[in-house]
Design a protein that fits this description.
The structure holds two protein chains of two kinds. By secondary structure, chain A is an all-alpha fold. Chain A has 14 helices and no strands. Chain A has two domains: about 70 residues, no CATH class; about 260 residues, ABC transporter involved in vitamin B12 uptake, BtuC, CATH 1.10.3470. The termini of chain A are close together. Chain B has a domain of about 220 residues. Helix content of chain B is about 75%, strand content about 5%. Chain B has a two-stranded antiparallel ribbon. Chain B has a two-stranded antiparallel sheet with strand order 2-3. The longest helix of chain B has 29 residues. The chains are: A mainly alpha, B mainly alpha. At the A-B interface, α6, α11, α13 and α14 of A face α5, α11 and α13 of B.
């Protein structure tokens, strides 16, 4: 099925799904809005209208790239972790502790320490469901979903009680970090923070890891056929833990980058479902690390478009959510894709057969 | 403070709170169970509940009749479940994706409609709502404990218990139930015997919609009398955990719901006590920790039984 020649079918199919979802969205806008054209143009063109809006798209895409990447890795090893949300909180929190409470380090040491702490925090929290899965085969969908709450609530407890900045009122947060620790913006007119480049770097690292190293090969093999991998001598149980830990580390990194780039300190409930959105990003990208960047940018574009639409017309941004849902369903409709692929393969082989050329074994 | 807790236990307030807390979990879990038993793990319970909670309160407020509200909530839930089944069975969308899409859709669509129909952003509380009635059993008003135990609960509480019975009879005492269980355990063998797997999965999802719909309508018209955005707050996921915890069995689901209900009850009780020494977050976290622990215990038990060869090893995906 993953024949290179038929990659274009995937691309066309995804494009068609996008068009279909947007068209359905437009139909709904036509029905509910008094000013549909204004709403549609704000939604589609708003994100490109000013450099500031465009930079918002990039900034919103940064955490999504991290969580999407996190889930792409576990999904490739066929572990259905839903735990990026909790890992993002825990990783963000441990990173933030390092940022707020290690005094006197020069920035060029301090920043890597912060990032490492976030990586470690996320990885450790990810290791729990990984361990439970590999040791006792505990259903990872449920354990990760439950551990999300554990992570979110316990970090919330800590920031509300132990590490709360006395100056913060109802919305608990830590003390603000020193200014030089925060990720700088590219320019004032185009304020994308440098986290975007950390995200791109992570994509490169993960791509190399997945496709050019032994670890990556084994992870993908476990995902494709666990029994085969086990008979081939791969320690599948350990690999499952590794893959969830890598995923957790990426989610944690996403958390701290979001904190350093956008918020300036750890705030209670700072992630609005970034981890869950990452699931959709990974699925849209078919678990391909490079495609994750495109999917995240597109998803962020829809979100920003929705916000602008809400501000400039009478349609609320939840409509963008509905478009996202349709999009996800259409894109992941395997049956439709397989049907077209099969037809393409059939046509391809038939045209070869009639030409009397050599038989082509693609099916 | 322990005295305070004890007082609430002794005067049976705790039972009333427990029944109120466990009912939505139980109903949603029964819904989840019926689809899960056919091999379709419904992660979309959360979104379905939201849709039903919103529909039923909106229709009930508009029509002035709670029954019309509940029925329309259930119907729309059945419709949505059917749509999920269509995407999963016909278009081969992964069930996890379908479920998540449903959750996001439920949250987004209800907020969207709330702002569109009622110009409300956070919550919608209609003034003249016909709530699901409370059942007061006659003749026992004067018997102190018995009265408190059985009277004054919402009708939906009793429906929830009946749902357990109904589900048990359907799954274990009818040919239809045998077929449902068969296609979950060995879809290929079932198919080879001429059981229409796809059609039965559709019908199981429809049943799932019925019970989840009831759970949703209870949340907005029984537990409370308003719709708050994202008001389910993880109840659907808890229900999903209860299904696995209860070993995919109606009685197990009932017991699991009681455990979760108790955890929720203590959360509520501790929150009402002033200066509680236990941080509210810890109490809040209890159901989730209990789930993970119980799931682990359950998985270990299952593994041990497999080792002894009492059960055939589960299929790779379970």
């Amino acid at each position: 099925m993953n024949h290179k020649r038929f990659l274009y079918l995937d691309v066309i199919g995804i494009a068609a799904s996008i068009v279909l979802a947007v068209v359905v969205g437009f139909i709904i806008i036509m029905m509910v809005s008094d000013e549909p054209l204004q709403a549609i143009s704000s939604f589609l063109l708003g994100p490109f209208s000013t450099p500031f809006n465009l930079s918002t798209v990039f900034n919103k895409a940064v955490p999504l790239i991290f969580t999407g990447l996190a889930l792409a890795v576990v999904f490739q090893s066929n572990v259905f972790s839903m735990g990026a949300e909790g890992q993002l909180y825990v990783g963000g929190f441990t990173g933030a502790l390092a940022a707020a409470y290690i005094p006197g380090l020069p920035v060029w040491i301090h920043l890597p320490v912060i990032l490492l702490c976030a990586l470690a925090g996320g990885a450790m929290f990810g290791a729990i469901p990984g361990f439970l899965k590999s040791k006792w085969n505990a259903n990872e969908i449920v354990t990760t979903l439950m551990l999300n709450y554990v992570g979110i609530i316990s970090t919330s407890y800590l920031v509300n009680n132990w590490f709360k900045d006395p100056g913060s009122g109802g919305f608990a947060r830590m003390q603000y970090f020193e200014k030089n620790l925060l990720l700088r913006k590219i320019s004032d007119s185009f304020p994308v923070h440098y986290g975007f480049f950390i995200a791109l770097l992570s994509v490169v690292v993960i791509s190399v890891m997945l496709y050019k190293t032994r670890l990556g090969y084994e992870l993908r093999l476990v995902g494709k056929n666990e029994a085969f991998a086990r008979y081939g001598g791969i320690k599948t149980k350990r690999l499952i833990i590794y893959s969830v830990m890598i995923s957790g580390a990426l989610a944690g990194l996403g958390g701290i980058v979001e904190i350093l780039g956008v918020h300036g300190t750890y705030k209670d409930n700072f992630s609005a479902n970034l981890g869950f959105d990452g699931i959709i990003i990974a699925l849209l990208a078919r678990n391909n690390p490079v495609a994750v960047v495109i999917a995240a940018l597109f998803y962020a574009y829809l979100q920003v478009g929705g916000q602008i639409m809400q501000a400039e017309s009478d349609v609320s941004r939840e409509l963008a959510v509905i478009i996202q849902v349709l999009l996800v369903l259409f894109v992941s409709a395997q049956a439709v894709f397989n049907y077209f692929k099969q037809r393409a393969v059939l046509k391809h082989s038939q045209s070869h057969a009639t030409k009397g050329g050599k038989k082509d074994h693609v099916a | 403070m322990w005295l305070n807790v004890w007082a609430q236990i002794a005067d049976l307030t705790i039972i009333a709170v427990l029944l109120r807390c466990m009912t939505p979990i139980l109903l949603a879990a029964i819904g989840g169970l019926i689809s899960d038993i056919t091999g379709v793990t419904n992660i979309g319970l959360e979104g379905l509940m939201l849709v039903s909670a919103f529909t039923s309160i909106a229709v009930s407020a508009a029509s002035g009749n709670w029954m019309v509200g509940v029925v329309s909530g259930v119907l729309i839930c059945v419709g949505m479940s059917y749509a999920m089944a269509f995407f999963h069975i016909k278009l081969k969308v992964d069930i996890v994706i379908t479920g998540f899409a449903m959750n996001i859709f439920g949250s987004g669509a209800t907020i969207f409609l709330m702002s569109k129909l009622f110009q409300a952003t956070g919550s919608y509380n209609p003034s003249n709502l016909d709530k699901i009635p409370v059942v007061n059993i006659p003749f026992i008003e004067n018997i102190p404990y018995v009265n408190k135990l059985f009277s004054g609960h919402s009708l939906m509480v009793w429906i929830a218990f009946l749902a357990v019975l109904f589900c048990f009879i359907m799954l274990y005492r009818t040919p239809y139930g045998v077929h449902l269980r068969a296609i979950g355990e060995a879809p290929d063998s079932a198919k080879s015997l001429g059981i229409p797997v796809g059609r039965l999965q559709y019908s199981a999802m429809a049943w799932s919609g019925v019970f989840v719909g009831l759970a949703g309508s209870f949340m907005s018209m029984g537990m409370t009398s308003m719709f708050v955005k994202d008001m389910t707050a993880g109840t659907g996921f808890l229900a999903l955990a209860v299904v696995l915890l209860g070993n995919r069995n109606p009685i197990g689901v009932l017991i699991g719901s009681i455990i979760f209900g108790l955890a929720k009850t203590f959360e509520t009780i501790f929150q009402t006590i002033p200066n509680s020494p236990v941080p509210s977050q810890f109490v809040q976290m209890m159901p989730y920790v209990v789930t993970v622990l119980a799931l682990v215990v359950f998985a270990i038990r299952k593994q041990n039984r497999q080792k002894k060869g009492l059960v055939a090893p589960a299929a790779a995906k379970s």
